[in-house]
UniProtKB/TrEMBL annotation:
<dbReference type="InterPro" id="IPR017677">
    <property type="entry name" value="Methan_mark_16"/>
</dbReference>
<keyword id="KW-0004">4Fe-4S</keyword>
<dbReference type="InterPro" id="IPR050572">
    <property type="entry name" value="Fe-S_Ferredoxin"/>
</dbReference>
<keyword id="KW-0408">Iron</keyword>
<dbReference type="InterPro" id="IPR017896">
    <property type="entry name" value="4Fe4S_Fe-S-bd"/>
</dbReference>
<feature type="domain" description="4Fe-4S ferredoxin-type">
    <location>
        <begin position="339"/>
        <end position="368"/>
    </location>
</feature>
<protein>
    <submittedName>
        <fullName>Methanogenesis marker 16 metalloprotein</fullName>
    </submittedName>
</protein>
<feature type="domain" description="4Fe-4S ferredoxin-type">
    <location>
        <begin position="311"/>
        <end position="338"/>
    </location>
</feature>
<dbReference type="Pfam" id="PF00037">
    <property type="entry name" value="Fer4"/>
</dbReference>
<keyword id="KW-0479">Metal-binding</keyword>
<keyword id="KW-0411">Iron-sulfur</keyword>
<dbReference type="Pfam" id="PF01837">
    <property type="entry name" value="HcyBio"/>
</dbReference>
<dbReference type="InterPro" id="IPR002708">
    <property type="entry name" value="HcyBio"/>
</dbReference>
Length: 413
């Protein structure tokens, strides 16, 4: 039995043994019998579409006395909720912005959050009782900018298909989920997800330091719809320090969604935690349900999603037949692909939507399939980015190894 203080002392002395979740799973698959005495920290992570993401912002827009209070506000066209404090006659706005609020079909809160973090200039439009005010601001102008989530690290997702002979508009598809049973949409990072590795929350508790989109934050409690069988977390972090590659907007057939990432370092205190950390993709059930009724039709595992040879999408320009309009580029939900420039890895979630759209097979990846009632159904959309989540795990590991993170000191140094 170790203590947090002992692990922190090892981190400070440079003697801590730290694995990313992917490295630890590799040891398990190789048959290693790792004990708590042989490992101090395992870094876990998840990245993907998280509807329950929002920002709280304090934004200066005018000199004091210019207007009494804001009635309506937009940032880059995305509607915001003024308040909860009215900031009467201060010319300063407190705003709450949902990650799923949107200015149009292709731009929403997730896109806005990424552009704020990138330091881009943001257009503000304020409607007061007697006037309109316009301003331009950047993150440096905000006196407060925090991102929070209402259900991060969701442990148990469901895969969805459409059993009806129609194309269904849904957030689980970019172009509409084609039926009957023609394609399946999946979410979740499987064996590297923080709560898959600490389902009893021995380590991940209220107040636990975490990394939200790469920025130091904390767990504030259980998330919405959290149950013992399907737990998730609420977390909050400063937008200053976030890395844009771990966040952004994701266009679906039902409107824009928000990409959010969470990294969590798990201190290994005893062998109970080691037992939980040994979970593998093939051990994690993935129910497959009808999107119309949410009726579970069959059950796969995350090995069907992530134990494939190629998790990344590869573009082969020599196979491109230069169609008059590139459908693959038009459906890319993050704007990561054009046939002229290829794939922007800082924006690509490797969701594979472009692959399903390209008629000439100029894009490829190990996208896989799920067997549903004896029939193989191709996975045409992955709303989680396993590679990006593994990158975040490595980032957290590096912070630990170079002494920038300790469990009692946090990760903001």
């Amino acid at each position: 039995m170790k203590t947090i203080a002992e692990i922190d002392e090892k981190i400070r002395s440079g003697s801590a043994v730290v694995y990313t979740a992917a490295e630890f799973k590799r040891l398990v698959r190789e048959g290693a019998e790792v004990t708590a005495a042989e490992v101090d920290v395992v870094t876990t992570g998840t990245c993907g579409v998280v509807s329950g993401t929002a920002a709280i912002l304090s934004v200066p827009v005018a000199a004091p006395g210019t207007f009494e209070r804001a009635e309506r506000v937009w940032l880059n066209g995305v509607p915001c909720m003024p308040g909860p404090c009215p900031n009467e006659r201060l010319g300063l706005l407190d705003l709450i912005v949902s990650g799923t609020a949107h200015a149009g079909a292709g731009y929403g809160g997730g896109h806005l959050f990424r552009e704020i973090v990138e330091g881009r200039e943001i257009e503000v439009l304020v409607e007061a009782a007697d006037r309109s005010i316009e301003a331009r601001v950047t993150l440096e102008d905000f006196s407060y900018a925090r991102l929070f989530t209402t259900r991060s690290a969701f442990k148990n997702y469901t895969a969805f298909l459409n059993t009806r002979p129609t194309r269904l508009t849904t957030i689980f598809s970019v172009t509409g989920l084609q039926g009957p049973c023609r394609e399946v949409s999946v979410s979740g990072c499987g064996e590297i997800n923080p709560l898959e590795n600490d389902p009893a929350r021995f380590a991940i508790r209220d107040g636990t330091p975490v990394f939200l989109n790469g920025s130091a934050g904390i767990v504030t409690g259980e998330g919405t719809r959290s149950t013992p069988a399907r737990p998730n977390l609420t977390v909050i972090a400063d937008m200053v320090g976030m890395q844009s590659r771990y966040m952004g907007g994701f266009a679906t057939s039902a409107g824009p969604e928000c990409i959010t990432s969470l990294g969590v370092a798990i201190p290994v205190l005893d062998d109970r935690q080691v037992a939980a950390l040994r979970v593998l993709d093939e051990d994690i059930p993935l129910p497959v349900a009808d999107i119309n009724t949410r009726t579970v039709l069959d059950e796969a595992t995350y090995a069907d999603v992530w134990q494939r040879p190629d998790r990344e999408v590869t573009y082969h320009p020599e196979w491109c037949e230069e169609c008059s309009a590139c459908v693959a580029a038009s459906v890319c939900p993050t704007g990561a692909f054009t046939r002229e420039t290829g794939i922007d890895r800082d924006r690509c979630l490797a969701c594979t939507a472009c692959m399903a759209a390209c008629q000439n097979n100029a894009l490829e990846a190990g996208e896989g399939s799920l067997r549903v009632r004896g029939r193989k159904v191709p996975i045409t959309l992955r709303q989680s980015g396993r590679t990006l989540a593994e990158d975040l795990c490595r980032d957290v590991k590096e912070r630990i190894l170079d002494g920038r993170f300790t469990f009692t000191g946090g990760g903001g140094r």
